[in-house]
Amino acid sequence: MEHTSKYITPDIKLSCYEDKLFRSEIVFDHHMLIWFISGETRVVQSENSYTFQAGDIFLIPRNQPATIINYPKDGQPHKTVVMLLSKKILSDFYAGVKLNATTIPMPGIRCYNNHPLLKSCLASLIPYFDMNNIPGNIASLKITEAISILRVIDPGIDGILANFDPPHKADLITYMEKNYMFNMPMEKFSYLTGRSLTTFKRDFKKTYNTTPQKWLTQRRLALAHYMIAEKQKKPMDVIFEVGFENLSHFSYIFKKQFGYPPTELLNTTT
Predict the structure, then answer these.
(1) In terms of domains, do 116 and 147 share one?
(2) Does 55 reside within a domain?
(3) Could you write out the DSSP letters of every residue in the chain?
């Protein structure tokens, strides 16, 4: 995989993937504003999936588990401008703003298509990626401009950007059933359910009578079996959607669990 990134500051980068695809499972610590130059991305979350391509602009809120698959397309690399809207940047911005907004605790992705104001703001960053010694205040001004534009075109955005609270304690069953397919560390599962790691493991044992890792493996295998047997999806496609890292490991534990390899479902199911 050939991947390059150019930075104006740690909060603004130009990202480029030249290979066939790149997949990652990520929970972002900061909101991410993304402008597509070329290529295509599929973002899969617990209740929705999105496909973005050249010209699209969207915001991925922080603390939302997602599987992200980036593809080159039409002979062009997967190329994006990415702007991080960190807690510090946003708290500084909103310190002087009088708010009258309703907090949105679990927001979905915000899509802005090819909005001319946002496009103009983000496209104006391109020349800076090939320059050295960019004054820091220029990047700060561009981020402030982007936030200001978002507030004009998206009336509900303050309820997301100005919410600095950590995740509230969530119902464990509800959260895990929605997000078990995301391959996150246990520390991240515990944080996103509003618990310490010790409390998370204790509550999990009490609820499911097993360890989180054993339950996750069983649940993911069951979903994989359904997708291969009933949807006739190829194992290589399934592993990207159920939280396994590679095909050989998936095939091994699948056979250990069910007594036959996943490919047998494709051969015998009509």
Answers:
(1) yes
(2) yes
(3) --EEEEEEETTEEEEEE-SS-EEEEE--SSEEEEEEEESEEEEE-SS-EEEEETT-EEEE-TT--EEEEEE-BTTB-EEEEEEEE-HHHHHHHHTT--------SS---EE-TT-HHHHHHHHTTGGGGG-SS--HHHHHHHHHHHHHHHHHH-TTTHHHHT--PPPPPPPHHHHHHHHTTS---HHHHHHHTT--HHHHHHHHHHHHSS-HHHHHHHHHHHHHHHHHHTT---HHHHHHHHT-S-HHHHHHHHHHHHSS-THHHHHH--
Residue 270 reports pLDDT greater than 70: no
Q: What is the CATH number of the domain that holds 100?
A: 2.60.120.810
Pair (125, 102) in one structural domain: yes
Q: Pick the closest to residue 146 from 59, 43, 50 (CA basis).
A: 59
Same domain, 69 and 88: yes
Please compute the mean of the pLDDT values over residues 56-61 and round it to a whole number: 94
Q: Are residues 39 and 7 in the same domain?
A: yes
Q: How confident is the model at residue 17 (pLDDT cuts 50, 70, 90)?
A: confident
Query: pLDDT digits over 102-122, tens only?
Result: 777 677 899 999 899 999 999
Q: Evaluate if residue 22 carries a pLDDT over 70.
A: yes
Same domain, 128 and 187: no
CA distances from 240 to 44, 106, 140 (A): 10, 24, 37
| Structural domain harbouring 153 | 3-161
User: How many domains are there within the chain?
Assistant: 2
Contact in structure between 8 and 131 (CB atoms under 8 Å)? no
Sign of the four-CA dihedral 258, 262, 264, 267: positive
Residues 125 and 176 occupy one common structural domain: no
